[in-house]
Amino acid sequence: MKIKEVENIINKVYPMIAKDYQSTAKVEVYESLFTRLNCIPAEECNAYAEYDWNKNKIYIYITNM
């Protein structure tokens, strides 16, 4: 999948999920964790997503989708 495709799905589905769970978290989509951090991987990583408690953000990584 491409980032735009994933963003379209999130824009349709996430508002319903956020309402049910009373979530105010923002969602950002990246190719991978290393793309978001702008670094070279030291080892293979299989991250699909993560939540940053301090920033109240959900990061989605599409490489593993």
Describe what you observe in this structure.
- The protein contains 2 helices and 3 strands; from the N terminus they run αβαββ.
- The longest helix has 19 residues, at 3-21.
- The model has no long low-confidence stretch (mean pLDDT 90).
- A 3-stranded mixed beta sheet has the order 1-3-2.
- Strand 2 and strand 3 (57-61) form a beta hairpin.
- With 65 residues, it is of the alpha+beta class.
Distinctive features:
37% helix, 65 residues, 22% strand, three-stranded mixed sheet, alpha+beta
Could you give a quick summary of the protein structure above?
With 65 residues, the protein is an alpha+beta fold.
Annotate the secondary structure layout.
Layout lengths: L2 H19 L4 E5 L2 H5 L11 E4 L4 E5 L4
Parallel strand pairs: 1-3
Antiparallel strand pairs: 2-3
